[in-house]
Write a structure and sequence with these properties.
Blueprint (H helix, E strand, L loop, with lengths): L6 H15 L6 H20 L4 H12 L2 H11 L1 H9 L12 H16 L14 H21 L4 H20 L7 H22 L7 H38 L5 H26 L1 H37 L2 H5 L2 H23 L9 H31 L3 H28 L5 H9 L2 H13 L1 H4 L4
Helix pairs in contact: 1-2, 2-3, 6-7, 6-11, 7-8, 7-9, 7-11, 8-9, 9-18, 10-11, 10-12, 10-14, 12-14, 12-15, 14-15, 14-16, 15-16, 16-17, 16-18
């Protein structure tokens, strides 16, 4: 290693090293060598007259793109790469955990999902047990994976564990009525809230860092991609299992429904998290392609909806009649959430130093269209509440749409300023990641307040 630099530069190098170390194709010795080159370059630039911050940024840029570096290293060391990713448990790695930890926790999640069977609670006929507790049976194992992997402090462990304990107590003591809408809302929002709590473990307690929050957003997007791929493969496996056993006269439906499906889902949630950590350089090649493919498609969908809504609204002289259909409102809530996700995922996969491009302007069009759709949906929701009265589903959806509208409006303004070269991308990133606590707070409100407020029905 080179000579020690000033404390601020040392902190920046430490952050850079932590990021590079996440590439599992690069072991500790390679990171040491890269850091040596980085320190030497910083020293030369500082000697030429640059200040510490400028020297660090220029040195990192000259060292080469980290994604390109990972890909080149993987090509040149493919044999070691595959052994490292698929066979080894990283005994010499500078961070804890690996494949063995992930497999152990995946098995633990699968066992946790099946433990209720010992008490006569089946997955096919669960009563209200699984609707209450399914997120609490699986997500703690993902949290443990990152707490171990990051070698979390006792304080971070306590901060992550407390919401899980509180959620378990609430879901156990709330007297939900059979088929209660508040139970469905509580379970889904509990899953969202606990996933955001997992983010605290993922960033190792650095919740105030905009860059750390963006790293968690990137992880979430990549996790969704891997989970979808695992789900597709699992669907094929289940179909083949049932087909093969049916060919010999054995009905495997109960086995697949009671064992393969629940255990597979529970294990896949943990394994997908490990895959993101283990093969980041692979998925990061896919991320820009996915965002560039789906952003234009969702933009066209939103524009088509706006045009169809205007045409139908004029023909019926009542926008509420057109947009007041419950299923349609739910569908476009999902679309708006996906739009926000696409925007975040695109930003997380983007080079923050690159100038605005056509794709940034395409995103601005998508966000503007999403704002118009959100306003149309909000008007329809208010109309439904005025006509039929309030309900937990309507108010939960209304609150989500208000938050989405605020998020999208600020994002549109900052995206416009960035496209016009009047604001850096960092401001847009800080705005977007700053909404994570807002979504967490709203999810917590729905879990804690809505059930008693609506009589647990």
């Amino acid at each position: 290693m080179g000579d020690d630099l000033d404390p601020r530069t040392e902190e920046q190098i430490s952050t850079w090293r932590a990021y590079v170390s996440r590439r599992e194709a690069i072991d500790g010795r390679d990171v040491d060598e890269l850091e040596d080159h980085l320190r030497g370059e910083i020293g030369r630039l500082a000697a030429s007259g640059l200040d510490a911050d400028e020297a660090f940024l220029v040195a990192v840029k000259r060292l080469g793109g980290l994604d390109d570096l990972s890909r080149e290293f993987a090509r040149e060391h493919s044999e070691r790469l595959w052994k490292q990713l698929m066979l080894a448990d990283e005994p010499a790695a500078p961070r804890a955990g690996g494949l063995a930890l992930a497999v152990g926790l995946a098995i633990g999640a699968a066992v946790a999902v099946k433990v209720p069977a010992l008490f006569g609670i089946g997955f096919a006929d669960p009563g209200d047990f699984y609707p209450r507790f399914l997120p609490l049976l699986i997500l703690p194992f993902v949290a443990v994976y990152f707490l171990v992997r990051r070698r979390a402090t006792v304080a971070t462990v306590a901060v992550v564990a407390a919401p899980f304990v509180a959620a378990a107590v609430l879901m156990a003591v709330y007297p939900f009525q059979p088929d209660a809408a508040t139970l469905v809302l509580a379970t889904t929002h509990c899953a969202v809230a606990l996933w955001l709590v997992i983010g605290i473990a993922y960033v190792d307690g650095r919740v105030r860092s905009s860059r750390a929050r963006m790293d968690f957003i990137r992880f979430t997007g990549e996790w969704v991609v891997y989970l979808a791929l695992i789900a597709l493969g699992g669907g094929v496996l289940i179909a083949l299992t049932m087909g093969v056993f049916a060919a010999i006269g054995v009905d495997a439906a109960e086995f697949t429904q009671e064992w393969m499906l629940p255990c597979g889902v529970a294990g896949a949630v943990v394994v997908a998290a490990w895959l993101v950590e283990a093969k980041q350089s692979v998925i990061e090649n896919i991320a820009p392609v996915l965002t560039k493919l789906f952003t234009p498609l969702f933009t066209l969908l939103l524009l088509a909806f706006i045009v169809a809504g205007i045409v139908q609204g004029v023909s019926t002289a009542s926008g509420v009649e057109v947009f007041g259909q419950r299923d349609l409102l739910i569908l476009f809530d999902v679309v708006l959430v996906v739009v926000v996700g696409l925007l975040l995922y695109a930003q997380s996969a983007r080079d923050p130093l690159a100038p605005p491009s056509w794709f940034d302007r395409m995103q601005l069009v998508m966000v503007a269209a999403a704002i118009v759709v959100d306003l149309m949906v909000l008007i329809a929701m208010i109309g439904r509440i005025a006509e039929w009265g309030a309900s937990p589903n309507k108010l939960a959806s209304l609150g989500l749409n208000v938050i989405l509208l605020a998020n999208l409006a600020g994002a549109a303004w900052l995206q416009l300023r960035f496209a016009m070269h009047r604001a850096p991308l960092e401001r847009l990133e800080r705005w977007q990641t700053g909404f994570l606590p807002v979504y967490l707070a709203w999810a917590a409100i729905v879990v804690v307040v809505f059930p008693p407020a609506f009589g647990y029905v």
